[in-house]
Amino acid sequence: MYVNEDTLALTIVDKVTGAYMESYTSYDDGLANKTWWGAMNSAVVLTLISGSDDTKQANTFNDNVTKKVTYTDTGFTAKIFWTTYKVGLTLEVSQTEDGLTVRVPDDSIREEGDKYKIGTIALYPYMGTSYLDSKEGYILVPDGNGALIYLNNKEGRYSAGFSAMIYGSDIGFDESKVESLLWDEYKIVNSAEQIIAPVFGIAHTDDRIAYLAVVEDGSMRASIECLPNGVSIDYNRAYAKFVERKLYTQPTSNNSTSGSLHLTESERAHSDLQVRYLFLSDDRANYAGMANAYREYLTARGILKNTDEGYRTRVDFLGSDREEWVIGTSAVVMTTVDDIYDIYADLEKRGVSDILTVYKGWQKGGINNLPISKFKPDRKTGNAKKLAELIKTGADKGIDIYLYDDALRINPDEYNVTFNVVKKINKRKYVEETYKDVYESFNWITPARSGELLDKLTSQMAKKGVNRLCIAGITSNLFSYTYSGDVYTRYDTAASYLKTAEKLAASNELVLEQPFAYLWGQTEAFLDMPMYTSSFIVEDTFVPFLSIVLKGVMPVYSEYVNFEANRQEFFLKLIETGTYPSFYITKESSSELIYTNSNDIYSSQYDAYKETVEEYAKELSAIANKTAGAVITAHDLLDGSVTRVTYSNGVKIYINYGETAANADGISLDAMSYRVTE
Fold this sequence. Notes:
By secondary structure, this protein is α+β, with helices and mostly antiparallel strands. It is built from 9 helices and 46 strands. The two termini are 42 Å apart.
C-alpha cells in the first residue's frame, strides 16, 4: 500500500502479480470540472447541510483543509479539518493480510460551526476507478441476488447509476411511494429488490485484480453507489455513502395541504464508519472469487454457520384468511391440519418425503390477524392440540413444520393502534397501504413490542411442545422512528431485532424470511432468496452472488414457483444457483380467495401442483446429492447463452438458457436444458 501524504490517495499493489488499483484517477480527460476533479482525487468526500440545502460538497483535494498525518505499523491516521466549514474527522487506514480497512471513529467527527452540518460521508469513493473502457471488468452491484455493470464504454447512455440504501429504504423518512395501480386498486409494478448484504466490488479482469468491499460499521445508515462511465463524468466508480443527517418534511397541521417545514435531524447519527476491502488476484479476481471471499469472511467471524443438512422441498400452506360479510368478516378456510396430513401422505407415495413447511394463516382470525401473541390456532383449521400433534408427527417423519409470524405488522381493524406503533421522524403514524378491500392498511409495531409479543408467543408454544417458528417482517425491514418523544435510528432498530432473534434462536428452531445479512447467524435457512435483480437499465447482467456465498453452508429456498411467469427458465435458475424450490399450496382452489387480502394468490391448489412438486423434487434432489457438502468455487458466463457452475468437489453443471442447442467444453446442450458432469 502506497499513500500520497499530500492528498491521502492510495495505490494498492499485488506483490505477486504487480497488478494495482488506485483510489484516484491517474488520467485527466480534461472534461471534469473542479468539483468532480476534486472528488476523484479525494480520500473523503462530504455533503453538507445548510438550512434546507443538502447539496454542498466538500472534499480533501479542493477545499481549505488541515491534515495531521501519523504513520502506524499497518498504515496511517489522518486528522482532517475543513476550516471553511468548521467540520472535521479522523481517517484511519490499516493494511491487513487480505487488503485494508478504512475507518472513521464516531467520536472523531466534529461539527464546530453553526452554518454547516455533515450530511453524508464517502470514504475513498474512487477506489478501483477506471476511465471509460480503459479496463476490462465490471462493478459488482448488490441488487437482489447480484448484478454486474461492465466497464465498457457506455457512450453516455445513462444519466444515473445504481443507488440504494443497504437493508432497504427507511420509512421513518421516506414519503409513501406512488405505486402504479390498476383501477386505483391493484399494484401492477413490483417493488425493487433490496440490498440484503452490505457489499460491493470492482474487478479489473484484464489485470486479474479485484476487491470486494464489506461495509462493516455504519451499514445501517449507508447507501451503495455504483456508477458507470457517462454518469456526469467518464469514470467508473463504486463506494459506500454514510448518512449522518437527513432532511425531512414536517407537516404544520393535520391538513397536508396547509403547508410544511423542511427540517434537519437535530442529532447526528452515531456509529463508527468502516469499510473493509478484500483484495483478490489471479483466478479469484472475479465475482465468484468475491462471493467465496465473503463466505470465508462470514465464516471466520462466526456470522455464518453450516446448517445445510441436505435437499428439502419447501411446501408452504395457507390456513385461512377473511372476506367481507354482512357484519364484520367471515373465515375463508383454505388448508386445515387434516388436509396437510392428506397432502403429506400423497407426497410420500410420490417419493417426496424431505420437506420443509411454513404454515401461514394458522392463527385465530387468519393470516392477517396480526400481531400474534398467543398460541391459539383457528379452530376451523385445527385446534392447538391437533396442530401440535401435526408438528410432532412431521418431525418424526423428518418433515420440519414452522409456524409463520409476521412480527412487524398490526392490523388496525382488529387491534388498538394507539400505542406501540411506529411513528415517522415527523411524528406522523406510519401507515402501510395494501390496496386491498378487506384490510386496507397496516401499521408497524415498535421493535421492543415485537420482542415482547414474540416472547409471549414462544412461551405458550413451548408449553405445547412446539418450538419451530418462521419470522417475517422484522427480518427484512429497518427504519428510524419516534416513540414517546424519543428518536430511534436504524442502528437502534437493528440492535433490537438482533437481540430478539438471538433470544429466539437460543430456544427455538428458527428460520427467517429474506433475512438481512446481520441476522444470518440466527437462522437455519434463508427463505425467499431473490432469483433475479431489479433489472435496472444500468445493470448489464444477473449473477447469483448471494447464492454462491451461501450454497453448501446454509439451505437457501426460492421465492414461490407458483408465481413465476417463465417456469422453465426459473427451474434452470434453481439448478444454476443451487437453490431449493418453494411452493405455496392450498387444499381448496385459489378462486376462494378472490374477496380476501390474499387475492393475489392466483394459483395454489395442491391438485394442480402435486406432479410439479414430485418432478422438481426428483430432479433437484439428484443434483443436490452430487453437490452435497460442496460449495460453488467458480461461476462462468460462457460464450452465447451457456453458464458453467463449478463445485469444490469437481462437479460441473452446464446450463443453456438459449432457444437453440449449444456446445460448451465439448458438452452438447439442448435448448433450455442442463447437463451435470462429475
